[in-house]
Structure formats: C-alpha cells, structure tokens
Design goal:
Structural class: alpha+beta
Radius of gyration: 17 Å
Distance between the termini: 29 Å
Oligomer: single chain
Helix content: 25-40%
Shape: globular
Length: 222
C-alpha cells in the first residue's frame, strides 16, 4: 500500500500512458500501532466527535495551502513510511495536473485523495487516499473515491487507474465494490517487494433528465 510520491509535478505527455511511473500509496486502512497508541489520549476527543451524529456529514473540496498542516498530521497517522512531505503537498495543491481533495467533518480534516493526470491523456490515476482512523467506517473512503471519479470526469478523463497491495483485502473489497476491475499484477512493485494489483474503471458522464448532474460535495452518512 505504501509507495513513494514523485518529488516533482507530473510531466505533460501526448500519449495515453499512466500519469506517473512512481508506486502508489492507496487507502491507509492501518497505521503504526505504536504511534496510534502514543497519540490515543490526546486524540480521544476527536474520536468521540467522529462518532457523534453531527460529525457524520462530510464536505469535500479542493485542498488549499491552509490545509497542509492538517494533511501532514494525517500523513503521520496513516503511513509509517514514504509520507508526503510539506513541499510535495504544496506542489500537488498548486499543480494544474493534480487534483487534491480534502474531506472535512466540522473543523477536522478527516481524509484526502490525490488524482494525477497528464495533458493529452484521458487516463487519470488515483495516487493517494487516506482516511483518519477516527472517521473510518462512516463511508468516507467510498465518498472520496466517488468524488475523485467525478473530478476526473469533469477534466475529460475516461479511465481511472490505481494500484493496491495484494495483501490489503479491505482496500480491494472497497475498489471492487465501486466497480473497479483488475487489469494487471505487478510483482515486486512496492519497496518491500509486495505485489501490486492494478485496477481500472471506465468513467462515464452521468446526466440527469434535466441535464448535467451537478457535483455533490456534501456526503451524509446515516
């Protein structure tokens, strides 16, 4: 699941190739047990808030530079290694070829997703996705993936690709439930030698009877 973030903004291309050759970091289902244990007391209030009915409404919007500090905290909690740096988040947020979306529940950054694209290509890549452990089980991961699909479609993308570790069954179940289809295996893809399963989904513009379907950035979880 863990990979390495490119240190430069994605290069442009006129081919229909992948937006970035770097390994992908997808869906932080588990974090460092020692770090979570160390932070458990001071994070108890956030966990309590996450389970309250008022915090089950998420707003998803484009990330801004003001979001970098909470994004870095989420990285620390979600990934043991290969974390996105402050400089890399700054580049992603400013890059015209990247879509960086944050999910907020009240004043908390509860998750984020990054999609990469290339000029001249209709293939987008879900590069990184993480959800705060306190906000898991509320449907936020699926909401972020579906939002990434809509944003990619609005940019003219026709396919969304991702890689996931073969030993990450929870993430695999999520993507397959969202109609991603396995298209390739890549042995030794990750730094620790783990195999990556590549998934792909064809994106379609959804239209309501009255015209184009509006983008929904509010997600309610019952």
């Amino acid at each position: 699941m863990l990979g390495r973030l490119a240190t430069s903004t994605p290069a442009t291309s006129t081919s229909d190739s992948d937006p970035s050759p770097a390994p992908r970091r997808l869906f932080a289902f588990s974090a460092s047990h020692s770090r979570l244990c160390f932070l458990s007391n001071r994070r108890q209030s956030a966990k309590t808030l996450a389970r309250s009915p008022s915090m089950r409404r998420f707003s998803i919007r484009n990330a801004t530079l003001a979001d970098i500090a909470p994004l870095l905290r989420l990285e620390e909690l979600s990934f043991r290694t290969d974390r996105v740096s402050r400089q890399s988040f700054r580049r992603l947020i400013r890059s015209p070829s990247a879509i960086c979306r944050v999910a907020r529940a009240g004043n908390h950054v509860a998750g984020y997703a990054v999609v990469l694209s290339r000029t001249g290509s209709t293939v987008a890549r879900l590069y990184s996705l993480a959800v705060d452990a306190d906000f898991r089980g509320l449907g936020l991961a699926a909401a972020l993936v579906e939002d990434a699909e809509r944003m990619a479609t609005r940019r003219g993308m026709t396919r969304l690709r991702l890689e996931v570790r073969e030993d990450n069954p929870a993430a695999i179940r999520l993507y397959e439930r969202l109609a991603f289809r396995q298209c390739d295996n890549r042995p030794g893809y990750y730094a620790d030698g783990a195999t990556a399963i590549r998934y792909q989904k064809r994106l379609e513009r959804r239209r309501s009877p009255g015209g184009a379907r509006p983008l929904r950035s509010d997600h309610r979880q019952g």
